[in-house]
Amino acid sequence: MTLFFQQFVNSIALGSVYALVALGLTLVYGVLKVPNFAHGALYMAGAYVAYLMLTTVGAPYPVAIAVSIVVIAAMGGGMEFIVFRRLEGKSSVHAMIAALGVLFFLEGAANVIWGPDFRPVPTPLDGVVTAFGINITEQRILVIVAAIVTMVGLYMLLKRTLVGMSIEALAQDREGALLVGIDARRTALLTFAISGVLAAIAGSLIAPLVLVFPTMGAVVILKAFVIVILGGMGSVPGAILGGYLLALAETMAGTYVAFAFSELIAFALLVLVLVFRPTGLFQKGV
Amino acid sequence: MMSLGWRRLILVRNTALVAALALLGAGCGGGEGGAGEDGIEVVPIGFVGPLSGGAAYYGQNVLRGLQMAVDEIAESGGFMVNGRPHRFEIVTADDRYLPYETSTAARRLLQQEQPSVILVPHAGGIRALQEMNLREPQFLLIAYTSEPSVLEAENPMTVMFPPRFDGYQEPFTRLLMERFGSRLAMLGTTTAYGRAWTESVTAEWTRQGGTVGGDHGVDYNTTTDFTGAVTRALADDPDVLFIGGPSQPTGLVIRAAREQGFRGGLLIMDQAKFMEMLQIVSMEALEGALGVYPQEFYPTEGTPGWVARYYERFGDDAPSATSEIAINYQGLHLIAKAMELAGSTSDPVAIRASFSEAARSVPDELRIFDMTGVTETGHLERAVFAAHVLNGEFVPIQIPVAGATEIR
Fold first, then answer.
1. Between A209, A210, A251, which is nearest B228 by CB?
2. What is the pLDDT of residue A140?
3. Chain B interface, mutation test: which of A259, A261, A267, most B Cβ atoms within 10 Å?
4. A84 vs B171 pLDDT, higher one
5. Which residues, including other chains, have CB under 8 Å from residue A64's CB and lie 6 or more apart?
6. Do A19 and A230 touch, CB atoms closer than 8 A?
């Protein structure tokens, strides 16, 4: 039973990161109506910025996260302004291919700048907490808490601010939103910037737990894509629940079947959901 | 940063060589190479391996070792073949670590550059080229892998440089079982090479009377968080954990295991290198680990001098001097010696025939390993060491030469 609870705790930490990445993806989907694969590159870049701040600059961890948020939010906004704005009105295939292009471009750029090496990121929180026979590292506690704070913050932003409400309005009914005078371009720009913030938080939180390398985003973005489909395209609660659910499914399948299968789980779930419930497990309700 | 410069350098050199060959026309065909600006004849050495994709870092390490030897040879005025000085030029083709791309890439390289020697750093690609290296144009295949099946193919035109991986399991098992106990949990990477290791460790551990838990291996290259897999493996209550894949992810696995309170031994596959794992974990976390000996401190006479030259050339911030770099560096000097003894840079059969003598006659100042010869099946023989981390120190363990046959 200890094994079960230990794995449960492990999956909550992993699920927090999955959920944060999936949230950025689902928000942009609401506005763009295509999965923005380049979001994986934002996550990777967020981890690199945190890495640079912690090692080369020697900044404290909170500063590293803050800088990462600012830089990646700007990158996200820039992505909309430079690439996706110009594809407005074209078929969504264009935007999808552009998103893949941006992902590969940024991965290539990271490869040129930092090389393909795995980079370890020092963590100021390297202690381990043990309770009831269950271990969790301090960094993982931070990941879980910070993810929840971020999700609450995002919820408040969407429900309580004008910006958030325009994002929701655009996602729900584009024409209606335009009719009531919402500035679609400004909102799209802001949505990309917010998705950048989420990617930066996820990237800089997980950086000390994993290794930073150019293709780290490609692995996670595929999972996030599965989560977004699982939770319903464009659904915010769906992305959060989906994130935790996928991490739980992977870890438990690994524990009670075999870890070699855990990579399969995500994509098996994807196929099952698409076949039996194509709208996602949680009906769209931004 | 280093890697960018490197790639560019190699690219520029490739382009320059192609241009030189084109200018010289058909006269320099047949693999004999053309004369460089310095009047020294240039001999192309082929490299087909990963230069992009997930394994690019590995490919660049291999190239770094080769390039170091290429530069040293050029700076010392070249090696003499039939009384004329020669130097090497590395010509590369990217196969992204995919065996089915290795043959295509090698064919292109053979057509464009006519190398008589091609080095491939992964078993799948090597086996693919063993299907074609005896047909025209023949070439000598240098295998940078520790996979014994490459030798079992009995390809007369293959030379394998690294030690076979099946030499490690017996002493590793014996030592760790004695020190920690007889329960083993499996957590190796799930690549083809990782699986081969997993199988052979399982067989050896069982043969020596131990018990082996289920296989909880994960792909070290694509796993984001190892905690879950480590928790599962530790639930088997092991005395020793079998782990290994690329060095840095292996470091993460060790960290996760120690964080979860595991105090037992670590049986580490030869792909992971201690000095790179130490970027992630402390020496304390490695206590009770058994793996390949750190190249920088390899217990041979030539090592300190080579390490000093390595850091002098690449700077103190260069990637640590791993065996990937050392073995390929040593290998290139060996090829130069073999060509010298064969009296030819273009006849792969003659070059292969001189390898055993070359292994014994590489000059002392260029020797990192105590090489004694090359076996009938094409394996470079030398003393091999593993390291056992005991009270915070690397203790050398000599590995018996597995499957040794008489030296030709």
1. A251
2. 87
3. A259
4. B171
5. A49, A50, A53, A54, A57, A204
6. no
Span B333-392, pLDDT tens digits: 999 999 999 999 999 999 999 999 999 998 888 889 989 999 989 999 988 899 999 999
Q: Does domain B2-165+301-384 correspond to CATH entry 3.40.50.720?
A: no
Residues B323-346 as b/e (b if ≥16 CB within 10 A, e otherwise) read bbbbbbbbbbbbbbbbbbbbebbb
Residue A219: closest C-alpha in chain B: B222
Confirm or reject CATH 3.40.50.2300 for domain B167-297+385-399, answering yes or no.
Answer: yes
CB contact under 8 A, A14 and B227: yes
Give the closest-approach CA distance of B128 to chain A in angstroms.
Answer: 26
* Spatial contact of B250 and B192, defined as CB atoms under 8 Å apart: no
Instruction: Of A7, A17, A41, give the one whose Cα is nearest residue A262.
Output: A7
DSSP summary character for residue A30: H
pLDDT in tens, B289-341: 999 999 988 888 889 999 999 999 988 777 788 888 999 999 999 999 999 99
Q: Measured between beta carbons, which residues in chain A are less than 8 angstroms from residue B57? A: 115-118
Chain B residue closest to A207 (CA)?
A: B224
Q: Name which of B96, B260, B282 to mutate to probe chain A: the one with the most chain A Cβ atoms within 10 A of its Cβ.
A: B260
Q: What is the mean pLDDT of residues B71-85?
A: 92
All CATH 3.40.50.2300 domain ranges of chain B, comma separated, are 2-165+301-384, 167-297+385-399
Here the tokens at position A186 are 């400004």
Instruction: Look at B222 and B162; give whichever has higher pLDDT.
Output: B162
Residues B216-226 have a mean pLDDT of 83
Residues A200, A49 contacting (CB under 8 angstroms): yes
For chain A, the structural domain boundaries read 19-215
Give the least confident one: A39-53, A85-99, A149-163, B139-153: A85-99
What is the predicted pLDDT for the residue at A286?
41
Q: How far apart (Å, rounded) are the C-alpha atoms in residues B3 and B361?
A: 33
